[in-house]
Amino acid sequence: MFTWRACCCLLMSLYVTSLSKILEFLLSVRRRLMVWLMSLMAIIVVPLLPLFVEFEKHAGLIKDESYYMTAAVLAAGFGFTSEGYGFRAGYIALFLWCIVADYRPEQAEQAVGAINTVQAISTQSWIFGHAALVAIILTVLLHAIERFAWHVVYDRRFPDYLEKGQ
Fold first, then answer.
1. Which among 65, 74, 108, 126 could disulfide-bond with 101, CB atoms 3.0 to 4.6 Å apart, if both were Cys?
2. What is the DSSP string of 105-134?
3. What is the total count of domains within the chain?
4. How far apart are CA 98 and CA 118, in angstroms?
5. What range defines the domain where residue 142 resides?
6. 44-77 pLDDT per residue, tens
7. Which of 109-146 are b and which e, b meaning 16 or more Cβ less than 10 Å from the residue's Cβ?
8. Which of 75, 40, 43, 70 shows the shortest CA–CA distance to 54?
9. Does the N-terminal peptide bond of residue 159 adopt cis geometry, omega within 30 degrees of 0?
10. Alpha-carbon distance 67 to 138, whole Å?
């Protein structure tokens, strides 16, 4: 009987401990996700505000040049703060693509090659027809992935000066 009680107490202790660890982990992940979302708002959404203003001022139209220049500036800025070589290479490629496409936007938006299926043609023509918008989306997506690694996986604080204890 004594061993049975000891075994039950041990199991209850393990159960409560594991539940508290699971709850602690979930709260930690929740905090990390909130830090990530806050960083996205500050680092991605705020720099895109001029595009929203242009959208409102010009009846829903944004010039391709605005997309390209915004994506180029964001890619350059994100490239300087990037820590991984893969991300940095992606930002450099996006920066160069945006600068070249902004120089000759009519050439950047032409679809090259032919595809047999109607669905593929419409998807390809949409992507090439909206190349400036795709540049912004790729830049933002690349940085959102990098920020996810920083704040959720590696548990880095935002803003960065909080990590140094200032």
1. 108
2. HHHHTS--S--SSHHHHHHHHHHHHTHHHH
3. 1
4. 28
5. 2-162
6. 999 999 999 999 998 888 888 899 999 999 999 9
7. beeeeeeeeeeeeeebeeeeeebbbbbbebbbebbeeb
8. 70
9. yes
10. 12
